[in-house]
Write a structure and sequence with these properties.
The chain has 941 residues and is of the alpha+beta class. Helices cover 16% and strands 33% of the residues. The chain is built from 15 helices and 50 strands. The strands form eleven sheets. Strands 30-28-26-25-24-34-32-31 form an eight-stranded parallel sheet. A hairpin with a 2-residue loop joins β41 (709-717) and β42 (720-729). α2 (327-339) crosses α3. It is globular, with a radius of gyration of 31 Å. The two termini are 49 Å apart.
């Protein structure tokens, strides 16, 4: 209820003529006794803030064989008692005290053996009201419980709790101490800015030991911009009542107020000082004035359309096992993310501490917080529901003033009772309308579609069925084989840059955010092991490295890493651009910009777990297709014959803060690895803000390109550069060489070799099915072991599990088939029509001409093309069905490149094999390893 309040506005400039950027007002702070330092716990002496893991007091973990996640070196699970003697100064004996623990696990607190209470909060500060404390010594006892029983079972799988991410640590982190007040306490204060008004509604919770007239003085200024703006100094008169009461009033920010956004993250620092009967208390907050809203199927920030270029934050902090509690580290990480074009963070089933919001406020990052849940919603699970609602209400109260806090969801991939989800969201929205709300992220795997009452829809599909080959409902380019037939668009359809998610958008009325895009595996960099100097150790990586050594491939570890990192980056580009070129799309949330070392060990990042670049693609290149302005080439294919006219429709995605007019976009079509231009041109640009607009069409005849050539199409406007690889091949039939004998019969191949012939052996895929793996273009999805088990359980196809090709571009085989060391789009049809052969039984120093990099679970030596000297004959084995790919320019040229190589003097295999060796190689079954994946909460039924 609104109490009787009189507002007196003085309108005196707080800092007069002094620049706000040069002189800052230091507002009064409450007395605070830090409890940082040495504490006694059940295991010995420990430093807090910190965790038991960091203290190394718990026994050393004897399990060094787990491959599912990083290993806690000194884990502790259970109740832990912490005690410390403190001293209350004589002058503070009449004050009211609160114990503040910024982040911890369920706790119980005693002062001098008197029970104070309990708290179950895990994502918001725990605050205990202690009352008055006599001067002198007191004993503080805190029991922290991280045992499974301390929270509802459904919380265990969330990223707020699980060992797969931040670890289920025991301890206290962040701000930790005793805070005093003199009998009046502003315990909470929420501001509700409106971009169209100079007044801001304020709701304050004030606890008072006295009643009567009180004044609230308001001072503030804009502190992080060059603009010299102070809000008018003003006084609010209230009738203060004894006890805890709610007070509502308005403050005036002046005729000129500055808005917060990703473009200009302007922040106000405002202090509220209450005074009554010579008792004072102060409450200082930072806030921004912004309007983040959904308009149709897109988001707006202060009436400007914005596109969310997001990353998934899995709570991965490999040194501490818990999130940073200081702003500087969050700013470091967010600035790295911004170098890659990121403007949005989604926190998977957890909410970060205030330090993360502080950093996001300053860096202009849009944040999506989530409740700590991943599972099924059920009205009968009253304990869990009560826990989640309580956590959600505290999240809103604790972090609600942050302008970066724009979105909230109930958890990850929820199933069950939609009405329960709706009721919880309605409860949250009723109490706080500053944020947009969703029932969850990728609920029911998107099959149920958008639900009434959701402000936005985070999903991988809009309707449709799990496991189907109908991709028209999809909102991302790749899936596991358990989730979509053949892994979705990117692996299953011939490469182009023309596919969009428009059909899915048609079936939605709210903004769609593509859920967990990418998940492209990168072979790990074993040099990273030495970075793990904290509470976690990568025994999983050591095991993967040992498997590689057992197969004699250890000398290729770096090459595997570099090739797969480069290829994964190209796939991320394709996935992101599908989102950008979809009209009316809301955004995406990558999984991920950085690695996820849990849930089976998913090395899916462009960056490693420490936010260091893996070397696959520089930030400057990544930012070219992941930014507020992105030039886009819409092409029907990547591979062309020289009898065709290369055509591309050029569009531009403009989510900058203004329209683009009186500017130009230049384009060049040049030969790769040289400065030779084939064609060039320029288009004028006239693209409205927040639009995907047409720029022009490129048409270039290719008849003058007479040899197989890789081209690069470069699009540039201002500093924004985006590039595309294109291949051009001669339009001619594959020439047959009389000295090369082609066969699909092993017996015939051996007979021909005995006669001293050059033999091209292309095995029938059915005959070598148990000696090979399937053909896959895209890097295996997320983690091979986990989705292999899920697919088998669901009786669906299992992914072939490979990551990329690996080859030497300078090898004579590629004189007429240009390539990098890794897969690229010209390899799609080849990879899809191949069965890489398992060469584990060959000598350890034997390497195929075109190798296929296997996943970390199997670590097979795989050959797509390999050669041998067999008696007087020369054998080249091609595991790709050349006839099946001969209708495509790249397919024909690949076959021609093989023929040309075999007919040249360069074809001189150095590895000698007998006919019996070859028979054995192609007839001895490979013992299949038993691969057990980690359990996933989502079932993919």
């Amino acid at each position: 209820m609104r109490l009787n309040i009189c507002i007196v506005s003085i309108f005196i400039c707080l800092l007069l003529a002094t620049s706000c950027t040069e002189k800052k007002v230091v507002f009064n702070q409450r007395e605070f006794i830090s409890l940082s330092g040495k504490w006694h716990c059940d295991l010995g002496e420990i430093n807090l803030p910190g965790s038991v893991d960091e203290s190394r007091l718990a026994p050393r973990n004897s399990d060094t064989l787990s491959t599912g996640q990083l290993t806690r070196l000194n884990p502790y699970v259970g109740k832990m008692k912490y005690t410390k003697d403190i001293e209350i100064p004589a002058g503070s004996a009449q004050k009211e005290w609160r114990l503040i623990m910024e982040r911890t696990k369920p706790s119980t607190v005693w002062i001098d053996k008197d029970s104070i209470g309990t708290s179950s909060l895990i994502l918001s500060p725990q605050i205990y009201n202690l009352g008055k404390l006599a001067a002198g010594k007191h004993t503080v006892t805190i029991v922290i419980d991280n045992s499974p029983a301390s929270v509802p079972q459904g919380i265990h799988g969330s990223h707020a709790w699980t060992d797969a991410t931040q670890t289920n640590w025991n301890g206290i982190i962040g701000k930790f101490g005793l805070e005093a007040n003199d009998g009046i306490l502003i315990s909470d204060l929420q501001v509700y800015p409106n971009v169209s008004s100079k007044t801001i509604p304020v709701v304050a919770q004030i606890k008072s030991s006295v009643s009567g007239k009180a004044e609230i003085s308001v001072q503030g200024y804009l502190w992080n911009t060059a603009q010299n703006i102070a809000i008018p100094e003003q006084v609010i008169n209230i009738d203060l009542k004894e006890g805890l009461e709610t007070y509502k009033f308005d403050i005036n920010v002046g005729n000129k107020h500055v808005l917060w956004s990703e473009f200009d993250p302007a922040l106000y620092k405002v202090n509220f000082e209450i005074k009554s009967q010579n008792i004072k208390d102060s409450y200082t907050i930072d806030f921004g004035i912004r309007d983040f809203s959904a308009k149709g199927t897109q988001f707006e920030i202060n009436s400007l359309k914005t596109f969310l270029r997001g990353k998934h934050d899995a709570c991965v902090f490999p040194l501490t096992g818990y999130p940073p509690m200081n702003k500087e580290e969050w700013k470091r990480q967010m600035r790295i993310a911004k170098e890659y074009g990121i403007n949005h963070y989604r926190f998977h089933s957890w909410t970060p501490p205030q330090a993360a919001f502080d950093a996001a406020n300053e860096e202009g990052i849009y944040m999506q917080a989530e409740l700590p849940y991943w599972g099924t919603m059920d009205t009968t699970n009253t304990e869990l529901n009560k826990f989640l609602i309580n956590e959600g209400e505290h999240i809103l109260a604790t972090y609600g003033n942050n302008p970066s806090f724009v979105m909230m969801a109930l958890g990850n991939e929820l199933g069950g009772d939609v009405e329960l989800m709706r009721s919880i969201v309605t409860k949250f929205r009723t109490s706080d309308q500053r944020h947009l709300y969703a029932f969850g992220a990728n609920n029911m795997l998107g099959t149920a579609g958008q639900q009434q009452g959701e402000d936005f829809f985070v999903t991988c599909r809009v309707g449709g069925q799990v496991g189907s080959d109908d991709y028209t409902t999809h909102t991302r380019a790749t899936f596991s084989f358990a989730d979509a037939k053949d892994g979705g668009y990117m692996n299953a359809t011939y490469p182009s840059t023309a596919i969009t998610f428009s059909k899915a958008v048609e079936n939605c009325t709210a903004p769609i955010i593509s859920h967990e895009n990418g998940q492209f595996q990168v072979y790990p960099d074993y040099n990273e092991i030495k970075k793990y100097t904290g509470v976690l150790y990568p025994y999983n990586m050591e095991i993967f490295r040992k498997r590689l050594q057992e197969n004699g491939l250890q000398d290729q570890a770096d090459a595997f890493h570099k090739a797969t990192a480069s290829f994964a980056a190209l796939c991320y580009k394709a996935d992101i651009e599908m989102c950008l070129r979809t009209p009316g799309f809301g955004g995406f949330q990558l999984l991920d910009l950085q690695d996820y070392p849990g849930q089976g060990s998913a090395y899916v990042g462009i960056l490693d777990a420490f936010m260091d670049n893996k070397g696959g693609m520089a930030a400057e290149e990544f930012d070219g297709f992941c930014d507020e302005i992105v030039p886009l080439s819409i092409m029907p294919k990547y591979c062309w014959s020289n009898s065709e006219i290369f055509t591309a429709e050029i569009k531009l995605s403009n989510y900058s803060k203004e329209a683009l007019s009186k500017k130009n976009l230049s384009w060049t079509l040049s030969k790769a690895h040289s400065n030779v231009n084939v064609a060039r041109g320029e288009f004028p640009i006239n693209i409205s803000q927040g639009h995907l607009g047409e720029v022009g069409k490129i048409k270039v005849p290719l008849q003058d390109i007479n040899t197989a050539t890789q081209l690069v199409l470069t699009l540039q406007t201002g500093p924004h550069v985006n590039k595309y690889d294109i291949w051009v091949y001669p339009d001619k039939q594959v020439s047959v060489k009389s000295d090369i004998k082609e066969t699909s019969s092993l017996k015939q191949a051996l007979d021909l070799l005995q006669q001293g012939n050059k033999v091209l052996y292309i095995p029938d895929h059915k005959e070598v099915e148990k000696l090979s793996v399937g053909g896959l273009f895209t890097p295996d999805y997320w983690n091979y072991a986990m989705f292999k088990n899920i697919s088998e359980w669901l009786k669906r196809d299992v992914s072939p599990g490979t990551l990329s090709i690996l080859t030497d571009p300078s090898h004579p085989l590629f004189k007429e088939f240009p390539t990098e060391t890794h897969s690229n789009w010209q390899w799609w049809i080849i990879s899809k029509n191949s069965r890489p052969f398992i060469l584990d039984r060959t000598p350890k120093d034997y390497k195929p001409l075109v190798q296929v990099i296997d996943n970390i679970e199997r670590n097979h030596k795989l050959g797509l093309i390999f050669e041998m000297q067999v008696g007087k004959g020369k054998l080249l084995v091609c595991m790709c069905d050349l006839k099946a790919i001969s209708d495509k320019p790249e397919g024909k040229q690949f076959g021609q490149a093989i023929i040309d190589y075999m007919s040249s003097t360069d074809f001189a295999p150095t590895n000698e094999y007998t006919a019996e060796d070859i028979k054995s190689l192609f007839s001895t079954s490979i013992k299949e390893k038993k691969i057990v994946g980690v359990k996933n909460i989502t079932t993919y039924k």
